[in-house]
Amino acid sequence: MSNPFFTSEEDDAIAQFLRDGYLVFSIEDLTLLDAVKKNIYRAAAALINNKDQLSEDDFFDKIHEIISVKELNDFRVKLIADMAEDQTVRPSIYSLAKKQIHWLVGNELAMQRNCNLSIQFPGDDSSLLPLHSDVWSGNSPYEIVFWLPFVNCYDTKSMFILPRSQSEEVFRNFKQYSSLTAEDFYQKIKDQLVWLDVKYGQGVIFSHSLLHGNRVNGQAETRWTINVRFKSLLSPYGTKELGESFLPITMRPVTRIGYNYIKPEC
Ligand SMILES: [Fe+2]
Questions:
Q1: 3-state secondary structure of 184
Q2: Is 199 strand, coil or helix?
Q3: Measured in angstroms, how far is the CA atom of residue 59 from the centroid of ligand 1?
Q4: Pick the CATH number of 8-259 from 2.60.120.620, 3.30.710.10, 3.40.640.10, 3.40.50.1820
Q5: Could you report the per-residue pLDDT of 26-77, keeping only the tens digit for each?
Q6: Angle in degrees, CA 188, 191, 193, rounded to 5
Q7: Cβ–Cβ under 8 Å, residues 72 and 129
Q8: How far away, in angstroms, is 239 Cα from ligand 1 center?
Q9: Residue 52 Cα, ligand 1 centroid: separation in angstroms?
């Protein structure tokens, strides 16, 4: 049933998110997205001294042709450090999904301190995320992940998620899964998983409380994604607390005054 306080576009996105636990959407500001991608290209190309080996267009999909799996983690960590120093990265990433985050989370927000960068080479099994819920490792179920690809993601070049009703069904009957190995757990529910088909120019917001993960990338191209968490500033925190893992980004003045309210002393 629609909520008269929401626009119909907002209402549709909310209904979809409540049903599936995720939302795939088109990024409206493609100029900003291209600028973010170009910044990452420049930093990455400088790190590995890419001269003419790969054109800018091919760089992301084909980077596995010029660096090895052994070099990958060091490269990724340096790139994340470069991104963390650039004060424009977090506001730009927020801006790309601002409308959808406001619809699904609210407008008074905390954002994860650092944006994570994931780079998955074809056939590489060294950085896999088995089926999991982030709540199991201390995150609050009141958070979402904004997942932003810099290449077209499909099949095993993408990530999988178990939609909300199926994830909740697994949690309700968890006794029958809790003693399984990660691989057996995956095999048991793999037919219900949705592999997200997300092109460059699109983004995903998902509830990381739901079961999700990835497998060895069986495509011939590398996957590049940024992921970063957002939550409503005043919603409950897990072990990743405000001021440590999360920083307030859009605190409104009334909340600021409320926080600083001084009870008159008699
Ligand atoms: Fe996760």
A1: helix
A2: coil
A3: 26
A4: 2.60.120.620
A5: 999 999 999 999 999 999 999 987 667 788 889 999 999 999 999 999 999 9
A6: 100
A7: no
A8: 15
A9: 36
